[in-house]
Amino acid sequence: MRVNLANIWVVLNETRYPENIGAAARACCNMGITKLAVVCPERLDRSRILKMATHEASHLVENMLLFHDLKEALSGFNFVAGTTARTGRHRLPTHGPRQLARTVAPISQVNKVALLFGSENSGLTNEHLEMCQAIVTIPTAGFSSINLAQSVMILCYEMFCACTETTKRAPRLATLQELEGMYRHLSEMFCAVGLVNPQHPSYWLHLARRFLGRCHLKSKEIRLIRGLCRQVLRTVNCMKQKRL
Fold this sequence. Notes:
alpha/beta; Alpha/beta knot; Helicase, Ruva Protein, domain 3; 2 domains; six-stranded parallel sheet; 10 helices; 6 strands
């Protein structure tokens, strides 16, 4: 099974240089990926973008979607893979480019997949990566900083080449919007039962994101978890009222 390139999007967040948008569009065109979204670019000079994209990729630039908020841009995606060169306790990579492509192959058959890239100077923040179901690091020989368009080319190339032995497509997954609603509900429940400090709920929620993000949840499973949250919250509120 090959990656369904029609369901693959490249999403560029907070780019600094218009030329990198154009070069990324050209890389997408080289590898058969036709969908590009740009979020909060520092400069959006279409003439400079088109110059780097060349005539062959100009249609990607003309049709690219522009957003002012990353969460809004990603809300309709079922699977988001964020790229980072910086790793650490809260930035543990889950995939390399080739492994990601093989993971995406069955998912991409009926799901929208975003390949998310951060700004040239700072990349993606921890907050950005929390919205991702996969974190990708491109292996290097020591100097880990790779040009944005080169990073796009590497991931798009692996998507283009990937072929897995599986013939079973993944089911339709929940969207990021549905996942974020579930995480808000979980955070409220964690606070209500005293699992976390209401002023600092991030630790347990971060663990929940890492665990549930690997589960490839479907919409009905999201509804089940949120139903549990609602029931727990009702029970806690009833107990509080009885004490009064």
